[in-house]
Structure formats: C-alpha cells, structure tokens
Specification:
Length: 272
C-alpha cells in the first residue's frame, strides 16, 4: 500500500513521544508493533510516498484507523491563530504528525514507565517487558513480541519487573495490571465516560498522575482535548503562554496542538 507523504510523516511520528514501539531499522525502514501485528514501512522517495508492507484489507482493517487517516489535519492546522507565531511555527515544523489510535492498556503501562525517563530509555524498558512476558509474533523472521496482556504482566513478580529497568515504577506497573485483571478498573468501559470522568477514573490507578492520565487520554482514548503537561510543555507554556494556553480557540483539537508544540520545543532545545 502506497501512502502519499502529503498526509503523514513517519519519521516525525516516530519521534513525537506518543509511540514507543515504532523504530527505525538499519536499512532506513520503520518497524511498528501494534496489537500483536508487525508493520514494516518503507520510504519511497521516487513516488513521494510511504509503502506499508501489508495487503489492502489489513491496511483498511487495522492501519487506516491506527494512523487516524480519516482526519483532515490540514483543517486543524488552519485553525491556528494567525497572530500566534510560535504555534504556527510549531505546526510547520511538526506537519505530518498524527495522533495515533493506540491501545489504552499499552498506553497505561507505557506512560507509567515514562515518568522521569528519556524516550530511548522508555523504549528500552518496554522492549524488555515485551521480551520477558509478551507473546512472540508469528510469521516474522525477527524475534518480535507483542505488548503483554494484563494477565501476563500480573503473573510477574515485582523483582522480575525490576529486571526491565523500570525502577520504582515496578510497583505501579504491578498495581495497574492487578487493577485491570481484577476489573477494579475496566479500560474499555471507562471509554464511555466524558473526558472529566475518564480522567478521574484513570487517576484512581496507583502511580497515575495528571500528566500520565493526560497522555493515556490523548494517545490511548483519542480524546483530542487532552493536553498533557510534561517538562517540555511546561517550558513552552512558561516561555510562550504565561497566561495559559488558549484552549477555547482549539476545542476538539488542543491535544493535536500540544503534539506540535512538544515536537517543536523538544527539537529546539535538543532531543532527550
């Protein structure tokens, strides 16, 4: 499947801090694991497109939705206040980023791990957990593993989790798995809630604070008004929006604007 580059930029998405299982291969292609499936993506400069190595049905059934291909990001970008030079520069710099429709369970554990960790370190920890207890993906020459189920992580001891370089987050990961397995928290059911109630439910989970809850909402539930504030976004707010970000101008897409700002300021000051 050929996907025109005008709609998407895989390189930027991979570095946007929302997905930790999309990696660049030695040959320049990208590999992505989602819900037990592996997708290889080639850059086809001769056709100004990306080539998704999958059949049309798999693209339509899985990857079209995953990459949010039915949303016109051009319309959202055009909403930027013409007098807000910072946001317009951020959009221009980050054009091609899309908010992926990822699995809420994977996002819960991924962003618990993300606390006070660099993106490379987060990826390393997640890969270790996947190899420790995830299910091997069949049909691939490489040794690839799906993200573990709640039951697979719950079966681990906290000591086993510590071998995955998660540090103090081990107890949070274990508690989250137990909460999901016991149905103390039902990740699918809470998707029926409005944004405020969804956030309240997520904050009930041990180890989930405001920033992590916002990331889970944005990347795991596609709640596009979620606006997670990490150290980079806080810096941007302090420097560019001392009176607060004008969320009222971007109802329904504040989270997309957050991603452009995050990508822009992180690259402006240097990657971590």
């Amino acid at each position: 499947m050929l996907i025109p580059k005008r709609n998407i930029n895989i390189e930027k998405i991979a570095e946007s801090g929302q997905c930790f299982r999309m990696t660049k291969n030695s040959d320049g292609s990208y590999g992505l694991i989602h819900n037990g499936r592996y997708l290889r993506i080639l850059t086809r400069d001769d056709k100004d497109a990306y080539e998704f190595i999958c059949d049309k049905k798999t693209y339509e059934d899985v990857w079209r939705r995953y990459f949010d291909m039915d949303t016109d990001y051009g319309i959202i970008e055009d909403m930027a206040d013409p007098e807000d030079d910072y946001l317009r520069n951020a959009i221009e710099y980050g054009r091609g980023i899309r908010i992926l429709r990822q699995d809420a369970w994977e996002m819960l554990i991924s962003f618990i791990i993300s606390q006070r960790k660099s993106i490379p370190a987060i990826r390393t920890s997640i890969e270790k957990i996947c190899r420790l207890c995830g299910t091997r993906i069949e049909g691939e020459k490489e040794e690839l593993y799906a993200f573990p189920t709640p039951q697979q992580i719950d079966a681990l001891t906290e000591e086993e989790l510590l071998t995955c370089s998660v540090g103090y987050r081990g107890k949070y990961i274990k508690a989250a798995a137990q909460a999901v397995v016991s149905k103390e928290i039902e990740l699918e059911k809470i998707n029926e809630c409005d944004d405020m109630s969804l956030k309240d439910n997520l904050l009930r989970i041990y180890g989930v604070g405001e920033k992590v809850a916002g990331c889970i909402m944005l990347f795991g539930y596609h709640r596009l008004d979620a606006f997670p504030v990490d150290v980079w976004i806080k810096r941007a707010m302090d420097e560019q929006y001392p009176n607060g970000f004008p969320h009222h101008k971007y109802r329904g897409c504040s989270g997309i604007m957050q991603q452009y700002i995050f990508f822009y300021i992180r690259h402006t000051y240097g990657r971590v």
